UniProtKB/TrEMBL annotation:
This is Carbohydrate kinase. GO terms for molecular function: kinase activity; metal ion binding. Keywords: Kinase, Metal-binding, Transferase, Zinc. InterPro entries: Carb_Metab_Reg_Kinase/Isom, RmlC-like_jellyroll, RmlC_Cupin_sf. It comes from Modestobacter muralis.
Amino acid sequence: MSVVPLLLPANQPADRFYAGGGQIAGFRRQAWDGSRVPEDWVGSTTTLFGEASLGLTVLDDGRTLRDAVEADPQAWLGERHVARFGADTRLLTKLLDAGQRLPVHLHPDGPFAAEHLGRAHGKTEAWVFLRGGAVHLGWREELSAARLRRLVDDQDVDGLLAAMHRVEVTPGDAVFVPAGMPHAIGAGTFLVEVQEPEDLSILLEWCDFALDGPRDGHLGLGFDRALQATDLAVRTAGQVEALVVRAGGTGPVLPTAAGSFFRVDRAAGGAEFGAGFAVVVVTDGTGVLSSAAADLQVAVGDTVLVPAAAGAVVLGGGLTALVCRPPAP
C-alpha cells in the first residue's frame, strides 16, 4: 500500500433528505449544481444505513478504504491501535452543510446498538463549526416517555423544539453530542463532524422533509423500542454549555469526555502530530503537509487521509487545519 498522505476528492452521497452542498463546494473550490449533497464522508469505512457500499471512500487504486484497512490494518492504523481496537478505524469524519435546519433526531449508544442492531458502535458525535448559527441540544424541560411519544406521533415540532435548549455557535466553536441526546443542527451552519463509524439515526421529526418517518425513522425496530434509546434527562443551561468548547487557540478542541470516542486538534503552521490514522481538514491557507514519505501541497478546503505508516506529519507555515483522529490506543 501507499504509505504517503492521500489527498481525497469529495465523497458526497446524492439525493439526501435535506438541502445543502453549496458551502461544501465553496470550501472545496468546486462548482455546485444545486443538488442535495449536504454531506462529504471523508476517509470513510462506513456505509449509509441499509446500503452495501454507498458512503465508502474509494482509493485511487479502486479499492475501498475499508478493504484496504482490512488487508493491512497495521500500516493504516498503527501497531498500538490494532492491538487495542483491531482493524476498526473507530472514526468517521464528515463535512456537513445544513442548507436547512436538520430534523430533531438522536443516535443510539453502543450497548443499545449492540443489543438491538448487532452493531459494533453507537453514534456519539461532535461538531466543529466553520460557519456558525444555532443548534438545538438536549431537553430543558422534563418529558415522560409517553409525552415524547405523543410529540413524535403528532409531529409536534414546535413542542419538541420548545422542550430543547437552543445554543448559538460561532466559527471555531465545538459541540460534543453524546449518544441518546436529541439534537438538531440549524440552517446555514457549516461544520466538520466526527463520529463513531456508524449511520444510525432515530427520528423524532420528519414532516416537511423528504422522509417517510413512520417507515424509516426507527432503524427497523419500531418506535416503541427505538425511542428507548432516548436520553430523557433534563439538563440545565450550564450542563449543556459544558458540552460546548468556545473558539480558542491550537490544540484539542473537544471536551475531555470526547476522548474515549475520537480526538480533534486545531493545528497551525509548524505543528507536528505523531504517527497514526488521521483525517486532516485544511481550514485556511496554502502550504505543504510533510511526512517522512512525501510532501503534499494543500490548500483550504482540501481533505487528507493520513495512514499510520506515513509517520509523523508536519503542517507547513501558512496553514491551519483540523486533525481528526480515533481515540488514543
